[in-house]
Amino acid sequence: MRTIEITSPADAGAGGQRLAGVSLAGREGHWDIAVSGGRIAAIAPSSSRGGGLVLPLMADIHTHLDKTFTAPRMPARATSLFHAIEMMQADAALWDHTDLRQRASRALDRAYRHGTALMRSHVDWYGASPPAAWTVLRDLADEWRARIHLEFASLTPLDLFAEIGETIAREVKAAGGVLGAFIYRNDDLEARLAQVFDLAEKHGLLLDFHVDEGLEVEARGIDAIVAETERRGLAGRVLCGHGCALSVRDPAEVAALLARAGAADVGLTVLPGCNAYLQDAKAGRTPRLRGLAPLHEARAAGLKVMIGSDNVRDAFFPFGDYDLFDAFRGATLLGHLQPEDWLDAVSETPARWMGRSLALAEGGPADFIRLDAEDLIDALSRPRADRTVWRNGRILTDHQGEQT
């Protein structure tokens, strides 16, 4: 392990520190970062080398805190998306306040210590009354406010909106949340989707869809979402997650759709880990199709493309630890990504979609991730490279509390 220089307080001014000779993601050369009073006092070119790699904090825009850490309770491995849904709905009988709080708190702590600063969690919602998870997450959002900015989005099957959509929208508005729906080969799709958009406009809500999470070419939910967004002029307010079916549709058709989506400023969240694990899953057979939405083509068409953790240790994906940098490593492999060009997909792009910024800047908060690595390729190549997470100019420890 290399020795990384953190110089004495005198080198950065009273009460400060200076990180010498670091590499900064997205910038050429090496840099000295002066930290004082919990903020970045200066970022200056350095003649030193070997100071490690500094990254911005992460923004995880697609998670499921209500489902998380339930994998040990699952009776079997899911063999399809809908099999996983069935197992999760059965497990939901155990989701009382204590269970939900314990699992979600564990998730938030893991994410925080890995370097996540912003998070959006979807919450399953099937009835007129808010689910217990909604109440628990609202409480946890207040408790974690100084550590993780937590947003929450309702997740309701599209066909239920005619019956309970108005009630959900009012509750979501009151909580400052995001309105969401699950869409997959629904009958009367356009009319049902219009109801969701009507509610979003009426209550001033952002939209976040789970859409076309499968490998049937007939899945065209994203087409209807793009058309409705165009018609209403809701640029920058509509996010689509998954889009697996785009991977098996005619490329020319997909290109035309993505061009419209980019012009309409529809966002796309790609979930490589969960989708690669669950799509085309059959026991005793190697999967041929991984359900990866066309990241490169979407970004080239002007969409804001983001990468999220999605499910962590539940029926949909029994792995993960809320380490978004590790999820980025997997996305880099599965999507053939050039890491420097795509790091913003787990940081600044989702942060800005949530109305915030995680960019490192002089005068800004001393919040960043520091890896014992020469550059981003080195960091991705060595998963066990030492990592320190800095928040307000202090290094987080592995336990509760912080190290100065």
Automatic annotation (TrEMBL):
Alphabetized InterPro entries for the sequence: Amidohydro_3 (IPR013108), Metal-dep_hydrolase_composite (IPR011059), Metal_Hydrolase (IPR032466), Metallo-hydrolase_Enzymes (IPR052349)
Name one matching Pfam family: Amidohydro_3
State the Gene Ontology BP annotations.
cytosine catabolic process
Molecular functions (GO terms): cytosine deaminase activity; isoguanine deaminase activity
UniProt signal peptide: none
Residue span(s) of domain Amidohydrolase: 190-396
Identification of the protein by name: Cytosine deaminase
Which species?
Shinella granuli
